[in-house]
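Q: My collaborator sent me two sequences in one message, no labels, and asked for predicted structures for both. Can we handle them in order? The first one she listed is below.
A: Yes, handling them in the order given. First sequence, followed by its structure tokens:
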Amino acid sequence: MTDFSTPKNTPFPSASLLGYPRIGRRRELKKAVEAYWAGKIDAAALDAAAKDIQLTTARRLQELGLAEAAAVPGTFSFYDQVLDTTAHLGAVPARFGGLLNEAGQLDIDGYFTLARGTKEQQPLEMTKWFDTNYHYLVPEIGPETAFTLASTAKVEEFAYALENGIETRPYIVGPVTYLLLSKASDDAPAGFAPLSRLEDILPVYVRLLEKLAAAGASWVQLDEPALVVDQDTPAAEIEAAVARAYEVLTSAANRPQVLVSTPYGSLDGQLGTVAATNIDALHIDVFKGDVPSAAALAGLGSKTLVAGVVDGHNIWRNDLAASAAKLDALKAAAGKVTVSTSTSTQHVPHDVAEETQLPEQLRSWLAFSDQKAVEVKTLASYLADPASAKSAIDEATTVIASRASADGVRRADVRARTEALTAADFSRSEYPVRAAAQEQALHLPPLPTTTIGSFPQTSEIRSARARNTKGELNDAQYEQLMKDEIRRVVGLQEELGYDVLVHGEPERNDMVQYFAENLEGFDVTVHGWVQSYGSRCTRPSILWGDVTRSAPITVKWAEYAQSLTSKPMKGMLTGPVTILAWSFVRDDQPLAETANQVGLALRDEIADLEAAGIKVIQVDEPALRELLPLRRAGQADYLKWSVDSFRLATAGAKDATQIHTHLCYSEFGVIIDAIDGLDADVTSIEAARSRMEVVHDLESHGFGRGVGPGVYDIHSPRVPGEREVTELLATAVKHVPSRQLWVNPDCGLKTRGYAETEESLRNLVKATQAIRAELLETAK
């Protein structure tokens, strides 16, 4: 019998990525998963599509030079890496009943049930993954949550690649991060902390490691990004949890070698804790974080230090000379050093070589996932032999220097405008003055109903846009089709009885890209898809230069929609922080400067909407929480400039113009002061999946302006019944004065179908009418 008391002694690869896009170069996974949900393919076909993507990825990375054992990360997921960990732990919330099958396994249908919910049960809550535009599904853990190895998908994925001649490096979220990201289940007692269940999940992790070792894995990657965040949990508790977790895992008799990865920032005080464990390799982010001192790295001993010197989160070409200097410093302080990315490259597209429509100069400034693999390989070559990388380093230095002086990167007219700003440009009249003017202008009933902006984008709409782009449909024909859809959407809202209407945004491909295509300083990609959550993919635009608006963007559509109804029509804009967060933003100046440039462009758009007779204007900021620094030291400065950029965009509005904003999938209590500081007249907030948790934050804060906690979760296909919506509204009324409350879905309806949308919106209106009647009766 093989003795596994000592892990297989395979050196950690000299060059590797922390992760790679898993959706497929042409979104093959999205198409397969959605086909499975629609019943067009069976589980076997879905599995075959997944295997093809996994193998194609592995072979591509080998072609790019990552050919050593365990250099290819096994980071595939059907939906979400945190959900994968929940599946492996069998951590199914009791509210879902018996999702595990007779063999005690969570099959693919049970897995998707947690992600998408059922008619009776809402899915797991969703929130942002650290400071990215990726979303994860929040585990629900309580004192009674049962843990068992309910999935061996990671083992099967590894075995399939190995059968095809490639030894990958399996990946799973580490135990400490998993529990720190979890929320207490509904039945947990007050004060319960999921981290208290650490001892109970470690045996399941050990079993998984044993199975991976038995399958032939020499390395496994355990991701612990929660260690780079300032947590509410005391640091001493986290340190103890890390020490205990990796004491147990590394003591397993039969295990692969363990890499602990810590992306998205600096470990700071936790570095010594992790270094002191018996893990075999430690990844640190030295792109975003500082290079640790020799004293800080001393605890590593003979462990391999995996240096994340290539940015996995943005698309700009690496300054190879600067990275080489960091590697020199690390090599002097640590024994074994290898090269990787700062984070998984799941946050960037596959290959810039496919973007042939971009200007050649711009393309030369960029590095997508494939280019980052080459950069990592180049820097690994530098570590082995500096002379071998000299030409590549010199070329990168030349290209980066050329970018600084390129036309459009800096514009005197744009900079003169931002430099001339004064405090008056960031403030409106006091809210009571505005509220009185808006009440006189709008005449809205109690609990006004509205939607967030977009309506379902049908295949016909998407086809019309594609045909117009290809020249198969002229602009006049395309515009008429969009007007027909707007007329349909306005008529539907009138029939349903909504109070403040939207035009549905059929002309918009994406809430950021649409503006990027109409502002100077941006370019857009054709194949630059990245995963946002599940099967949802976006194409972040490239913000490379100074931003300005040369002509109105949304006015003609809003003006046409308003002509169809006597009810108020919302003008719909995307806010400056969200445009930055959901784009690949220039890294050569402070974000605050770029945000103000975008804010001024939006300010001009708001003025034109007002001139066209639009009395309600929504400026969406769903990403406000997303860019919040993970360390508290940087948060106050971020919140100041992010709030200021919104106020700059909106402060020119007249008192009678009602300014709305929208936020979704964030821990709102953390930034409630900033939300208040936006000074929007009405704020709509995601609340359905969390079952109105946000109203407690609003109540304790004393939030004094209009607010619409969402009552319809649009990220799931389920239709909320009238009773469910009524209960959510009743909860909201208990904690927020009814005069402030609005009724709306959680987010835009773009990804939903019309049948489910109409039924859900009808239930929303019926529930509102019921609560209005109760309020009227109470007032008698």
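Q: And the one she listed second?
A: Here it is, processed independently of the first:
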Amino acid sequence: MDLVPALEEPLKKVLGPATAKVMAEHLGLHTVGDLLHHYPRRYEERGQLTHLADLPMDEHVTVVAQVADARLHAFASAKAPRGKGQRLEVTITDGSGRLQLVFFGNGVHKPHKELLPGTRAMFAGKVSVFNRRLQLAHPAYELLRGDGEEAVETWAGSLIPIYPATAKLESWKIGKAVQTVLPSAQEAVDPLPETLRAGRGLVALPEALLKIHRPHTKADIEDARSRLKWDEAFVLQVALARRRHADAQLPAVARRPRPDGLLTAFDARLPFTLTEGQQKVSKEIFDDLATEHPMHRLLQGEVGSGKTMVALRAMLAVVDAGGQAAMLAPTEVLAQQHHRSVVEMMGELAEGGMLGGAEQATKVVLLTGSMGTAARRQALLDLVTGEAGIVIGTHALIEDKVQFHDLGLVVVDEQHRFGVEQRDALRGKGKQPPHLLVMTATPIPRTVAMTVFGDLETSVLDQLPAGRSPIASHVVPAADKPHFLARAWERVREEVANGHQAYVVCPRIGDEEVDPKKKPAAEDAEKRPPLAVLDVAGQLLKGPLQGLRVEVLHGRMAPDDKDAVMRRFAAGDTDVLVATTVIEVGVNVPNATAMVIMDADRFGVSQLHQLRGRVGRGSAPGLCLLVTEMPEASPARQRLNAVAATLDGFELSRIDLEQRREGDVLGQAQSGARSSLRVLAVIEDEEIIAEAREEAAALVAKDPELTGLPGLRTALDALLDEEREQYLEKG
């Protein structure tokens, strides 16, 4: 983070062009400072080895173990038809388990000479399964030789750093590169204010860098990690505090609803009462709207907790106050659906200026990219004259041509699908910055909300409205128990026989061009490609769902076709919809009660939870079947078991984060830049984040420009290099 001259030195000058190229391409490391901040993932004690018994499938691992035996086999193959093929099988052990290594062809000669029984070495490779046994094929290895008793002693006691590595660059090669640049750590400029560091007993930054890369004891690692966690938490929170401080200086028009206006009329026609949660969150939003600074609020709520109702009431309040409200949806299907449901909920209140419209009514217009010219022209006219109080659309809303009469509120649906530039462009449509309400159905643990959306105030809806049905979820192990899959299709037929409908979700569309020149990588050759909508739909029609009305829906269909399919499904003219994740967000068909997710292990936890929220939306109970071929003990199966075991999205989002790590909380994960969080774990380090947030807020209130803290300014510049600065600006 601290870009000072010695740490700005490009790696290719220090390590040579070949290594530097791999580091830049595969690990996103370009300078000496970047490499110093590439911390070990864990440490091996040479005496206590990684347990071979706990190896994760399909991951690059580094293990330290001893060769138990080595055997050379001859075999016949297409390349060596006369039994001249050679395969070396080496079994290694660490006392907890055994693991097989295999080498083929010309690759057998060197290991055959070096990996003799009793030899100890570090091995790195990707764990795969062959004949139901774990193995590493062609692992890279480094022999561990101790010369004399003394060397063995120091060698056995020392901690070997294991770095996040790639197939192109093993952990020990990264370790050697780090040793080369480690002396530069002395020149790292400390971003923490001296008083904060002393007050919390944290070591200086150069010392922390030395201790994390070259620890002598476990206490060294602890010291280094606590210090580096504080750096990450504090610098990030200062960035967010400055953002909030700048926002608080912006002017906005206060929007207070009229006592007997549109909102009152709307509430009077609601056939149900709002949940306590909806009332509480609405009050928080109305209080924000009544201030002279722009609201920046994140509304998070479970799938189906009634967020749209809360957002609609906020939009009506703004229309009452003479302004306009815009709702941005990530897809056309969703924009159309929001438009339909808003018009239905409002009834004659949505028919402003039309015969039969109520006197307080306004116009609700839809604006999407695929609209006809005449409809589009009319919608644009209604917006610029102020005739339309509410507009719902996709990013077509952001185009230059779209002018508002007086834009007072922007509601963004499904935050994580919406580029920051897009929100910013829409914000620029107001005479003064409009109020902003961001909605997400992905439950976000409190600390993540403090980091990712640290510049937004947060409201949570955690009650489900009355009348929602429970969803039963089960894992269907298709490989171990094929009859379970057959039963899954019977369940779908039963639901349809009872007058209900079902979704079948697949990871792929199936009309992708396959490049004949591109061979699958060796490790993927055994793994089949993910199941595809077009193939599965065909098989179901011929087989288990013969005679039912089955249709497909995916992202590459023309917008009109998609909408037509969705309409037929919503109207009950289709029994089973085979789709990709286009149905993940906001699709609302209360009569759909069952969902079968094929290759469920290919989806993330939060995504499965979102998908599952599409069933059980009416009065009949929902059923979600997670089909997988992954073996019982695999991490993928554990993930699916977790999803099946709970409907609590917050619990699942914790599990999801623990498994995926945090990625880049500043949203850079989308652009592929490297993660800004290396040692801070958003879930475990809740206290540090909360304390750092307080310290940062106090510091920025006193000295928003950070005049006395050059080290902190440098660290901020590095964290907020151009694109991150923009990300926060536009957040």
